[in-house]
Design brief:
With 290 residues, the chain is of the alpha/beta class. Helices cover 40% and strands 17% of the residues. The protein contains ten helices and eleven strands. The strands form two sheets. An eight-stranded parallel β-barrel has the order 1-2-3-5-8-9-10-11, surrounded by four helices. Strands 6-7 form a two-stranded antiparallel ribbon. Helix 7 packs across helix 8. The longest helix is centred in the last third of the chain and has 18 residues. The radius of gyration is 18 Å and the shape is globular. The mean pLDDT is 95.
Length: 290
């Protein structure tokens, strides 16, 4: 099991010193990854309109101030972005971090963002399928031919190239997301975000649908991530919850240190409180897989 942390952007994202302190504390405590979410533009009062740091830029900064911890997006809303630019940005982050990027992708839910970025919200699934194939081609050679709708690269490419094919994980709990995850990805971001006692049955049903989409068995090495919210439970249950998730086939857990959910207002808090929860969790669950 690899246990990482969700970057609490809404609460500390505007304070560069807090960002640095949180990331370096997570790494020093042994956490396996830092996961960041993506919203480019939003409306006041809406979840997408909260304070969000741009993940690729954020990870460029974190690559310079950390040495080991994996940098994971959970997710980049790829269909609202230009394909070649996203491929370039991901390649740069992976290079600057010495191969520490795990690229979680999803189709998004906020039509406002797609309109602002001049993309068709209704075709986002098909667009992302084509984008994933195109990005992998762009990462493979400096001269390629790719086409995603009106975006065409013929006889050219990006430079520098990443030194590997960057791992892609797919987020979502729909039939299309399950199929996309097992055919185009190396893992599934399940987006269960409470804790095992409340999410167990729904997770089992979702995983069964994922396995069915794969034809009855998941690809070798396929990863599954869920989230946990330890502030909602007792420390004496934390290690048992990790073991329970592992028994269900979960390979990665991301720890939420905040409680600012979509249906709740943002509650700004000191980074010290977030680090304190990370510290207490690491003491209760010493093998973080990092």
């Amino acid at each position: 099991m690899r246990i990482g942390v969700v970057f609490p952007s809404n609460e500390i994202g505007g304070d560069t010193g807090a960002v640095r302190a949180f990331a370096q504390a997570a790494e020093s405590l042994g956490y396996a990854h830092i996961e960041a979410f993506d919203h480019v533009v939003g409306q006041p009062g809406d979840y997408a309109g909260r304070l969000w740091r741009e993940p690729f830029v954020l990870f460029g900064y974190l690559a310079a101030i950390t040495t080991r911890i994996e940098l994971a997006t959970g997710i980049i809303i790829l269909p609202q972005r230009q394909t070649a630019l996203a491929a370039k940005q991901a390649a740069e982050v992976d290079l600057w971090s010495d191969g520490r990027l795990r690229l979680g992708l999803g189709v998004g839910w906020n039509a406002f963002e797609f309109e602002a970025l001049d993309q068709d919200f209704t075709r986002r699934g098909k667009r992302m399928d084509a984008q994933i194939e195109a990005m992998r081609t762009l990462w493979s050679a400096s001269v390629v031919d790719v086409e995603v709708g009106a975006e065409i690269v013929k006889g050219g490419g990006i430079d520098p190239l990443p030194r590997r094919q960057i791992p892609i994980w797919i987020g979502g709990r729909s039939a299309a997301a399950y199929k996309r995850a097992v055919t185009l990805g190396q893992g599934w971001l399940s987006n269960f975000q409470d804790h095992l006692a409340n999410d167990r049955e729904a997770f089992i049903a979702a995983k069964a649908a994922l396995v069915a989409a794969a034809g009855g068995s998941l690809p070798s090495g396929f990863g599954i991530e869920t989230w946990t919210s330890p502030a909602r439970t007792s420390p004496d249950t934390w290690a048992a919850e990790v073991a329970g998730w592992a028994d269900l086939g979960v390979t990665h857990i991301s720890l939420r240190t905040d409680e600012s959910r979509r249906d709740q207002p943002v509650r700004p808090s000191s980074v010290d409180l977030h680090i304190d929860l990370l510290t207490r969790y690491a003491a209760a669950v010493p093998n973080l897989g990092g």
